[in-house]
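Review form for a predicted model. The reviewer records the input and the model, then writes brief findings.
Reviewer: anonymous (R2)
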Amino acid sequence: MSFTLKYFKTMLCLTLCLPLNHLGAQQIGKKIHINPFYYNIQKEVKSESGIVACAHPLAALVGKDILLQGGNAIDAAIAVQLVLAVVYPEAGNLGGGGFMVATLNNKKIAIDFRETAPGKAREDMYLNQITHKPIDGLSTEGILSSGVPGTVAGIFATIKYARLPLATLIDPAIEIADKGFVITEGEAANLNNTAPHFRRENKTLPVFVKQSGQWKAGDTLIQKELAHTLLRIKKQGMAGFYGGETAKMIVSEMKKNRGIISYEDLKNYKTVLRTPVEFDYRGYHIITMPLPGSGGVLLPQMLKMLENFPLSQYGFHSARSVQLITEVERRAYADRAAYLGDPGQVKVPVKTLTGNAYLKQRMQDFDSAKAGKSVDIKPGFIKESEQTTHISIIDKDGNCVAVTTTLNGLYGSKCVVTGAGFLLNNEMDDFSISPGIPNQYGALGGKANAIKPYKRMLSSMSPTIVLKDKSPFMVVGSPGGTTIITTVLQSLINIIDFKMSAPDAVNKPKFHHQWLPDRIDVEKDFPDSTRKILQHMGYLISDRNPWSRTELILRESDHIYIGVADSRGEDDAE
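Model under review:
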């Protein structure tokens, strides 16, 4: 199945889950035989002993294998991230960044390993110096679109919580990169479609471009240079990426192509330990990523606004429920554009934005009988100064981990570091390159998210954990750029309000509104009757290709979890 994701930030959501009862002793120490030249895809699985659901079956199998070897949720997350850097180059990465939210031994943790702007970045770096208009494509493709990578630092910030040695966790990725794996039809299509971009942005042709002919399903992709990079990380730790030979290759690539990431940028990159966002919704406890993850503001905003309405009575995909959710999304995204940015560099009024008094005021002009207009719905008044991967885990001890990493666009900047074999991100486009100018996902931003050296760009990544009665209930995440937050929102209310099954919560059509452009985007099979009512109310409805690839783990009973891999892609559940 071909899934090219060319309209939005792709995000892989990988979920691993173990129930709270212990793995059987006879299973611990068992090793799964993983054949990278033959594998199948399955979409749904129920288990007492562990589940992995992700965008690639080889990564899912490696994660499951790590759990059976006695690793915990962190071990599995690290191993899967590393394998995804090999088998899912569209989004899996060493050259990107991300977030982790976890509950470990009842302690709640949030680690920010988002990319940062290089030291030589400027607020006007993507603007024509005469017209002051954005230069087309400069922030979205090519080496100047890359921020300083944080993924490898994120792995080493979490490995202190792991049980198994790094060698055990990284060896599967090294072997698959070195020996190769067979690609699917969708992967072949993505590589073929992106080949002109790879040719344009790389002076040395990367392995992602076939020397003769085109890729097809069943071809083998071998990545020797990436294997050597992974081996340097295995032997030298973080210094194997942020220093030494790999850093030399990154800086050399910058100099050849007029990029601006320096040795100092790499050496000085740091992860940030943050406090997770926590709030309650209809008796469920939601834990998600804080800023610069904008879901940490928008999810509580939207759910608190919805909580004042009997949403379950309105019915799933009824005109009344879709209109209400749309108007809540409209108001939250207006605030996103005006106020949100890197909390380390700008003051963001989070308490006010997520406070009940403010949110009650935001809904005062809601009219259930007609469409709102974004030209009239401004950001609230406050007096105070689509390539992404998600990993969700519950291990045998009840620890939960949700990790989301990103390259931003499909294959990021399209630039591969010569000699190192990995793609660089194009995350600089997630900044506001100019007030009032939308990024590649149509999102507007203001001064709070302007480019500044060492600043972290605003993100839509929303790794989320849900507890019920203090026990793990759900772990969820999705791709889709600015649609990530509305997809996670709808996944939550599909389960909590509409009492849907896990497969339906994942696979039923999604809809999306983000303030501007002023329209409701809908996926295929969105009900025509609801569409007609909304259009009569004054809403503009726009059909779009699928944007979500939600991977969801849900507790069905005390000892049974169900894992669902989204039917929109080649995702897999094991």
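Findings: DSSP finds 17 helices and 20 strands in the chain.
Further findings: The mean pLDDT is 89.
Recommendation: see findings above.
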